[in-house]
Amino acid sequence: MTQSSFASVEAKIAASLLDIGAVALRPHQPFTWTSGIQSPIYCDNRLTMSYPEIRDLIADSFAALIQEVYPEAEVVAGTATAGIPHAAFAAQKLGLPMAYIRDKAKGHGKENQIEGLIKPGQKVVVIEDLISTGGSSIKAAEAVRAAGAEPLAVLAIFSYQLDKAVQGFADADIPLQTLSNYTALIDVAVQRGDIKQEDLSLLQSWRENPAAFGK
Q1: 174-205 pLDDT, tens per residue?
Q2: 123-131 and 150-159 beta bridge pairing
Q3: Are residues 89 and 55 in contact, defined by beta-carbon separation less than 8 angstroms?
Q4: Burial class (CB in 10 A: 0-12, 13-18, 19+), 197
Q5: Which of 104, 101, 48 is nearest to 79 (CA)?
Q6: How many Å apart are CA 28 and CA 198, to the nearest integer?
Q7: Could you tell me which of 60, 66, 168, 208 has the fewest CB atoms within 10 Å of its CB?
Q8: Which ranges in 81-199 belong to alpha helices (H)?
Q9: Whole-number mean pLDDT of the chain?
Q10: What does the pLDDT look like over 89-146, one tens digit per residue?
Q11: H/E/C letters for each residue in 69-96?
Q12: DSSP run (H or E) holding 11
């Protein structure tokens, strides 16, 4: 996937997420996250499962990214629960084994954190639906390491591009790549007229300092 084609995918997926309401922008009536942070954006990528063309676009994009950047991948692992279907779709296209990773080990049975088979030494790509602060995704990749395998990268549909996530992945020495992101989404939203040009600086200020937004 060349740089220009990747930019095209970013925009196409951003537009698709806006079309189906998987992403909503409200710069003047912000959403409240569980953490209490006020946010002008709300993202629910689970909606993509209900739109065959969009979920296929996402699966094709993940598969192309893996083939080009991580051709040595031996397993595709999804994060529970939102990453599971997208990992399954991508693994099917690539003809690779698929597994999924819980946020913590089960408290009964075999007490597995990883379901499916990831063998020691195998190279694994982890698929997530959304990156906010990145904590849960990093934890999933570290579970792969704890199993004796190698997490090549975390791949996600969308990222808010928050500095905390960027720093967290860097500190954990885990590459992160996303199919689309906050910057691409804002660009598409402005071009389509979904948001006003005068709201652009307000939306950009949130990404730079989310804790101060709306105060």
Answers
A1: 999 999 999 999 999 999 999 988 899 999 99
A2: parallel
A3: yes
A4: exposed
A5: 101
A6: 12
A7: 208
A8: 84-94, 135-146, 163-172, 182-192
A9: 93
A10: 999 999 999 999 999 886 566 678 999 999 999 999 999 999 999 999 999 999 999 9
A11: HCCCCCEEEEECCCCHHHHHHHHHHHCC
A12: helix 3-19
Residues 186 and 208 sit within 8 Å (Cβ to Cβ) = no
Locate tokens 């925009």: which residue?
Answer: 11
- As a whole number of Å, the CA-based R_g of the chain is 17
Give residue 124's region: left, alpha or beta (phi > 0; psi -120 to 50).
beta
Q: Is the peptide bond before 183 cis (omega within 30 degrees of 0)?
A: no
Enter the tokens of residue 174.
């885990």
Q: Where are the alpha helices (DSSP H) in 77-162?
A: 84-94, 135-146
d(CA 33, CA 49): 23
C-alpha distances out from residue 134 to 94, 112, 147, 155, 208, Å:
26, 22, 20, 11, 16
Tokens of 173: 């020495």
Rounded to an integer, what distance in angstroms lies between the CA atom of residue 66 and that of residue 69?
5
Question: Measured on CA atoms in the order 69, 72, 77, 79, is the torsion positive or negative?
Answer: negative
